[in-house]
Structure formats: structure tokens, C-alpha cells
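agent: user wants the structure for G2E3 ligase from Hylia prasina. delegating to structure tool.
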Amino acid sequence: FLVKDTRDIIRQAAKKSCFICYKMGASITCCQTGCDRTFHLPCAPDGQCVTQYFGAYRSFCWEHSPQQTLQPRPSQDNTCTICLDAVEDKVSYKTMACPVCQDARFHRQCIQRLALHAGIGFRCPCCLNQEPFMMEMLTMGIRLSKRPPSWESDQEVGPSDQRRGRCDATTCLCPGGREHTEAYGPWQLWLCSSCTAEGTHQHCSSLGNSTYSWECNTC
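agent: tool returned. relaying C-alpha cells verbatim.
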């Protein structure tokens, strides 16, 4: 039954177009009742869509994505707490904030990278709160790795990790073969953010430049 259901999902997805890139094969539908927007997972950041990687794994289009509700910011320092570059003067899809101290502002991309490195030690980089902060970030679509912080295990997390130098995609498109890897570009090697046991070239799994992480089919 599981195989049959999977085939049905694939057939249905083949008939749907992504509202972001307009190509066919969009398998994700906004879970808001009455909304029929569909999109590819790699396209989600470009379309400001949110996928919640916990519980029911719900996905939302830009119009129905959860929004942070915060009080006016105590300070006027419009810089990212993580990279120290400028952020927007209000919270948005790209600019997020800590719901506890409400003073920490950070780029979505910066807090996503921190979450993947910090793992189970993920907390606000400003006030160090963990539980409410972590739940807020998960609700807003930040993905968390289920392992100890990378600085404790001395293992790097991310596409530049070369502990497994092989592409495990069903069809590897790299001219240099599955063993070939480059530091940047389409032949950059990504590891599964959950198990790190399988890898893929960026192009072989259609990962966009704004993709923050990748998970293998097993996970």
C-alpha cells in the first residue's frame, strides 16, 4: 500500500506546477484550507514559503506562513546578532527575532546556519534562552539538526563537509562522476543534515542557491 500511495503522490505532483519557478512536479501544497498553491521544496526560500520540520511537517505559501508577533524593539541597533551586517528595521521572512529578549535580530540564513551547527544546543545567540526560542524558530521554518553542536564533536555541518566524497543521487549528472566535488557551484557536495551518511551534488538534487540544508530519502 505504501508503494502504491507513493506512486499516486508522484503522479499527482507531476500534474502540478510550482507557483515560484512555474515548472511541473511540485509535490508540496500549502496546508491552509482553501489554498491550492503548490511548490518544490528547493524553491521554498525564493518564494518565502515556510516548512515546519517537526510534528505534522506542515508547509505554507508566502501568504499563509506563520508570522512573528513581537513588541516594539527596545533598541534601534539594526544589525544581525550573528553576522553583524545590517538587517531590516522590522521582522519579516528574511529578518527574524528572539521572542524572549526581543532585542536579538538576525537574518534567516544566519540563524539557519547556526541551528545546523548548534544542533541540540541551539539557543538565542543574545539572551541564550533555549526552549521558547527553539519552538519559535521551528514554527517559523528553521530546521534543527538532532545531534551535538559541531564545535563539540569537531565535525563541520554544511555543504562543504567532505567526510563522504560521493554523490548518492539516483542519477548523478556530474561530468566528473560521483566522486567529483567542488567547493562552490553545481558540483558542490551536500551531506544529509540528519544522518550525514549520504550525499548529493547540488545540481543532482536540484538544490537552489538559497537552499539551507538537504535531507536524504531515507531520513
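agent: one observation worth passing along. The chain has a mean pLDDT of 82.
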